[in-house]
């Protein structure tokens, strides 16, 4: 049954993308064809007012472009495969390059483990924080979840684009809701038949309701992901860590999230803010890769303050929970 559901999710993915693009562009059209001309009157505006109108128009163009850019990048960017194989491989990658990449993964894994781990499903090398996606049927680096709305997994290489897409969507939905409520009142006043806009009245009402619903839903999801970012976790790791915290508490031990460097540093690491990419590059709609290759991750100082045996036990316990999660639907 689970495999049937996974296959259905995979097959319906492109339809979800088409629906998402249509709904987003519907709200954008509603803004430019109704809300903007209703809110701003160019002919009677002063010089300063016209400058403000131009700046507002530029801001909204920027927001719409960022939404589409990050959505496109979240869809088209491979989340990262454990051996650059299958769906996550480059189209121009030769078999020799794939084999060399596989050897590199094994070498990297041997640096921090006694023996290379392999996935129980796809039998590929399984680095830390990697999980098997049952929908894509492949292991994904720093796997968070599979999202049907992007027809892709959210993983190491596209997680940043996914979060920024949600961020711009939430801000834009709130902006649209604030400025469109007056035209909305007019659109539902069917006693007054005057409607000087090309955009249909029912569609404007639908667009506002849609923006509010999308803003609330995506706002909750976006807030959840920022919490995970600030605490250096993925969705899968959150549940694993919750289980391990309880287990450590019953044994009188202290659980330490080995990837948690503090909220500020976690944020910088996730968005790859540093000497090469400054903080303001977060606002640039340009391709920016994540930090690292997604196979080996630096551990925090608190983790290394634990005894060596405790470190090994926590790593091994984390690996066992990951393996159990990946084997659930076999």
From TrEMBL:
Catalysed reactions listed for this entry: L-cysteinyl-[protein] + hexadecanoyl-CoA = S-hexadecanoyl-L-cysteinyl-[protein] + CoA
Family annotation (InterPro entries): Palmitoyltrfase_DHHC, PFA4/ZDH16/20/ERF2-like
Record PANTHER family: PALMITOYLTRANSFERASE ZDHHC16 (PTHR12246)
Annotated organism of origin: Phycomyces blakesleeanus
Localization of this protein: Membrane
Residues annotated as transmembrane: 12-35, 47-67, 161-184, 204-229
Record's keyword terms, sorted: Acyltransferase, Lipoprotein, Membrane, Palmitate, Transferase, Transmembrane, Transmembrane helix
Domain Palmitoyltransferase DHHC: 116-241
Topology of this chain in the membrane: Multi-pass membrane protein
Keyword Protein transport: no
Domains as described in the record: The DHHC domain is required for palmitoyltransferase activity.
Residues making up the signal peptide according to the UniProt record: none
Family membership: Belongs to the DHHC palmitoyltransferase family.
Protein name: Palmitoyltransferase
Protein EC: 2.3.1.225
Keyword GTP-binding: no
Chief location of this protein within or outside the cell: membrane
């Amino acid at each position: 049954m689970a495999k049937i559901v996974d296959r259905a999710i995979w097959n319906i993915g492109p339809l979800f993308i088409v629906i998402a693009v249509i709904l987003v562009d519907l709200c954008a059209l509603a803004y430019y064809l109704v809300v903007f001309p209703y809110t701003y009157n160019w002919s009677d505006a002063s010089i300063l007012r016209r400058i403000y109108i131009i700046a507002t128009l530029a801001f909204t163009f920027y927001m719409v472009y960022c939404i589409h850019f990050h959505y496109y990048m979240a869809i088209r960017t491979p989340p990262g495969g454990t051996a650059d194989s299958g769906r996550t491989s480059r189209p121009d990658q030769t078999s020799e390059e794939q084999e060399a990449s596989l050897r590199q993964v094994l070498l990297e894994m041997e640096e921090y483990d006694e023996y290379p781990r392999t996935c129980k499903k796809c039998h590929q090398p399984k680095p830390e924080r990697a999980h098997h996606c049952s929908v894509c049927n492949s292991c994904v680096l720093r796997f968070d979840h599979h999202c049907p709305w992007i027809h892709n997994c959210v993983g190491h290489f596209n997680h940043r684009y996914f979060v920024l897409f949600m961020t711009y969507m939430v801000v834009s939905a709130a902006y649209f809701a604030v400025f469109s409520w007056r035209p909305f009142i007019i659109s539902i006043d069917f006693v007054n038949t005057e409607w000087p806009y090309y955009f249909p009245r029912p569609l404007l009402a639908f667009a506002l309701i849609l923006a509010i619903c999308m803003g609330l839903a995506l706002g909750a999801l976006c807030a959840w992901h920022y919490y995970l970012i600030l605490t250096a976790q993925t969705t899968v790791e959150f549940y694993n860590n919750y289980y391990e915290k309880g287990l450590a508490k019953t044994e009188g031990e202290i659980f330490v999230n080995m990837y948690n460097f503090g909220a500020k540093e976690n944020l910088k690491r996730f968005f790859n803010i540093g000497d090469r990419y400054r903080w303001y590059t977060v606002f640039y709609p340009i391709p920016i890769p994540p930090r690292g290759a997604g196979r080996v991750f630096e551990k925090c100082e608190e983790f290394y303050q634990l005894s060596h045996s405790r470190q090994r036990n926590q790593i091994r316990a984390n690996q066992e929970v990951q393996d159990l999660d990946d084997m659930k639907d076999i």
